[in-house]
């Protein structure tokens, strides 16, 4: 019986396998015919021909047959939302800067009062012997940590107000640079930290791309220029006004880049703080055109700030006209023009008219203080809430 079973199984295999082979060969020849076209199918009935044509419509055309017509050109992106975002963000930046200046002045007054009270307390109750005994009670590690913190505090105090202000901007750019090195963050970084008028997300990247650098050299170059001109721009405008100008310049330069890209049809992404940095550089050079500047690697070569600004504007203009894509020349020009316009006219039109907003904020704070303390006086003397226009 076992042999009979083996023979029967062998016989079935022999008789079944040719049939399967035939069906497979038919299928293979059918697919080969599909790939080679269907010019020989005219002899088949119309029903089969219709079935075959329905099955083969989704397949791509062959090299010998004409392909489908090219898709219509995509319409140019509308820039109404980015324009409204630019106007709104710029207004909010200067409004927040005016309120920040008010709060900074208020905190300085309160800090000065607390420092006077603490100095009187220390002079009347404690002497150097107390602090000597306290220092001896600390461990070696604690003493080294306190010395390190003291050195860091001395270094921070040695910086100018402008350098201390841009330190935070440099730190944010460094963090974003590190995020570009994380593979899992690539899609989000491209979506939110690169500006492209053809992208679906166009408003938020206008500000986030101003803190985004993919190349270390690109970031170091921009941050070096910002660090160099930080003391001058902050001494001219103040810390709060500088932050408003820097953030607004980043958005405005991106808007100019959007407009030029849409007009030329070259829709490609951009990133970097070059537009905002160009606004800072142009503002300082326009305000102090006779200042002497130099190149870090060529200290012998010197030139005036006005000539440097003219050369940079000429190079970016040529790059925009000739279609150079090494840099985003439209963003550079937008930032530079905004910086020149602000120190010439924008400061008078925007910053010097902040007093109504500051008074409104002061009244709101005073009502809050009066609600918690009946008959309480405002926290800071003076209705302007800040120093006079700079």
UniProtKB/TrEMBL annotation:
Keywords: Hydrolase, Membrane, Mitochondrion, Mitochondrion inner membrane, Transit peptide, Transmembrane, Transmembrane helix
Principal subcellular localization: mitochondrion
Membrane disposition: Multi-pass membrane protein
GO process terms (BP): signal peptide processing
GO terms under cellular component: mitochondrial inner membrane
Top-rank taxon: Eukaryota
E.C. no: 3.4.21.105
Protein name: rhomboid protease
Organism: Seriola lalandi dorsalis
């Amino acid at each position: 019986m076992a042999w009979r079973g083996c023979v029967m199984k062998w016989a079935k295999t022999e008789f079944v396998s040719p049939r399967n082979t035939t069906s497979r060969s038919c299928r293979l020849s059918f697919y080969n015919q599909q790939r080679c076209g269907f010019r020989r199918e005219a002899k088949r009935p119309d029903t089969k021909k219709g079935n075959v044509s329905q099955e083969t419509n989704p397949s791509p055309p062959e090299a010998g047959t004409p392909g489908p017509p090219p898709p219509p050109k995509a319409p140019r992106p509308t820039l109404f939302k980015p324009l409204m975002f630019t106007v709104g963000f710029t207004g909010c930046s200067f409004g927040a800067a005016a309120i920040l200046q008010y709060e900074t002045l208020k905190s300085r007054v309160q800090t000065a009062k607390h420092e006077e009270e603490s100095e009187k307390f220390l002079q009347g109750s404690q002497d150097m012997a107390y602090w000597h005994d306290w220092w001896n009670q600390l461990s070696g590690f604690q003493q080294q940590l306190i010395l390190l913190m003291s050195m860091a505090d001395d270094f921070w105090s040695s910086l100018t107000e402008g350098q201390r202000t841009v330190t935070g901007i440099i730190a944010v750019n460094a963090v974003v640079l590190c995020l570009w090195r994380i593979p899992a963050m690539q899609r989000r970084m491209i979506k939110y930290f690169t500006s492209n008028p053809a992208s679906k997300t166009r408003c938020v990247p206008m500000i986030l791309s101003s803190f985004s650098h993919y190349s270390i050299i690109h970031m170091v170059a921009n941050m070096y220029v910002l660090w160099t001109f930080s003391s001058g721009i902050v001494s001219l405008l103040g810390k709060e006004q500088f932050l408003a100008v820097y953030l607004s310049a980043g958005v405005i330069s991106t808007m100019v880049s959007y407009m030029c890209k849409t007009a030329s049809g070259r829709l490609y992404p951009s990133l970097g703080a070059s537009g905002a940095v160009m606004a800072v550089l142009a503002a300082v050079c326009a305000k102090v055109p006779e200042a002497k500047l130099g190149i870090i690697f060529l200290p012998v070569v010197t030139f005036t700030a006005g000539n440097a600004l003219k050369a940079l504007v000429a190079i970016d203009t040529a790059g925009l006209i000739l279609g150079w894509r090494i840099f985003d020349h439209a963003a550079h020009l937008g930032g530079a023009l905004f910086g020149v316009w602000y120190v010439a006219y924008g400061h008078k039109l925007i910053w010097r008219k902040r007093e109504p907003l500051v008074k409104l904020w002061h009244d709101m704070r005073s009502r809050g203080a009066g609600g918690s303390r009946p008959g309480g006086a405002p926290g800071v003397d003076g209705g302007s809430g800040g120093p006079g226009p700079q």
